[in-house]
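User: quick one, sequence for these tokens?
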């Protein structure tokens, strides 16, 4: 495991795969960052993100048939650059696949409250998980000219986006692998997310998003972090005498709080059944890609039950992790996760 400070930083920045993330990436050259310009991007609310840009990074090469693409959407507050520090390269073989790691709306790289010039801060329109997927669809089809993917794989909020891909574009990918994601938040999830939302909204330094210096909202960070694993894990990992260091670590964030607020609002409103008159059964009927659904039994950030229930509506493979790491059990170094994904991708194009 990394040092205590690095562990906390990864927990806040990456959300998934926090414990054994290794810096064994194929390179972090700044020129890997690319952007797709979508122009004025209309949201499902009817509002518009002006001059919308979607960030992405690619690894490997698209084959002549354009059938080996894998899309990896980013997690809550995560960036495509941070993905390079996850040890995913044995699981997703970029000598064979063309991997596209896409920056989700609101992550500070793609169009976000923090980086928008025309709609800065609270002037930025609220977006949904469905809007994230639509922006990625436009990036793939209009910018990269890709009309079908071999797979979509995402962890945490990336897994939530993967479920939405299944709902929005049921035939776009041959395989859909949501990792600790959900087709809609359960009631426990909503309790956690709304606790974070209320803390952010009530913070005086946040000032309803009208701040000049990014605030430190320790209470919101604490909820996110301690919900990421079980009480048993934290009791073992953070002895009483180390709690002050833990508290100081979680107070230090490397993301913008407006961005985090907008993304958590998108997660709160997520429900893939919306476009199917509120019916998960109807949503499941439309899905054409094969699904491998991986959940964590002790996940206190994304409760596994909605995903488990959805798997029963499909001919989907279900993997249930059992670990005190909870949400952090989503780790590409875990043999069960690694082998499950490798096997799912085996019918390579």
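Assistant:
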């Amino acid at each position: 495991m990394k040092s205590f400070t690095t562990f906390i930083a990864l927990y806040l920045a990456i959300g998934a795969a926090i414990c054994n993330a290794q810096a064994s990436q194929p390179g972090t050259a700044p020129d890997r960052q690319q952007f797709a310009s979508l122009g004025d991007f209309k949201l499902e609310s009817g509002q518009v993100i002006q001059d919308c840009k979607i960030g992405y990074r690619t690894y490997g090469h698209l084959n002549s048939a354009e059938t080996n693409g894998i899309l990896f959407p980013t997690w809550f507050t995560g960036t495509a650059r941070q993905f390079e520090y996850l040890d995913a390269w044995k699981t997703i073989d970029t000598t064979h696949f063309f991997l596209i790691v896409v920056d989700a709306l609101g992550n500070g790289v793609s169009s976000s409250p923090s980086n928008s010039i025309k709609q800065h801060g609270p002037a930025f329109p609220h977006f949904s998980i469905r809007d994230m997927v639509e922006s990625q669809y436009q990036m793939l089809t209009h910018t990269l000219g890709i009309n079908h993917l071999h797979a979509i794989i995402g962890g945490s909020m990336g897994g939530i986006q993967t479920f939405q891909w299944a709902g929005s574009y049921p035939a776009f990918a041959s395989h859909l692998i949501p990792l600790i994601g959900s087709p809609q938040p359960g009631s426990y999830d909503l309790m956690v997310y709304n606790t974070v939302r209320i803390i952010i909204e009530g913070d005086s330094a946040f000032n309803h998003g009208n701040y000049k210096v990014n605030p430190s909202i320790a209470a919101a960070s604490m909820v996110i972090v301690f919900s990421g694993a079980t009480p048993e894990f934290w009791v073992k990992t953070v002895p009483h005498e180390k709690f002050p260091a833990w508290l100081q670590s979680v107070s230090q964030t490397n993301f913008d709080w407006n961005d985090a607020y907008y993304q958590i609002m998108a997660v709160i409103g997520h429900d893939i059944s919306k476009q199917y008159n509120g019916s998960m059964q109807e949503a499941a009927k439309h899905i054409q890609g094969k699904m491998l659904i991986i959940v964590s039994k002790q996940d206190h950030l994304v409760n596994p039950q909605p995903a488990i229930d959805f798997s029963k509506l499909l001919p989907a493979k279900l993997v249930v992790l059992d670990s005190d790491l909870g949400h952090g059990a989503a780790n590409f170094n875990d043999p069960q996760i690694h082998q499950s994904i490798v096997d799912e991708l085996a019918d390579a194009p």
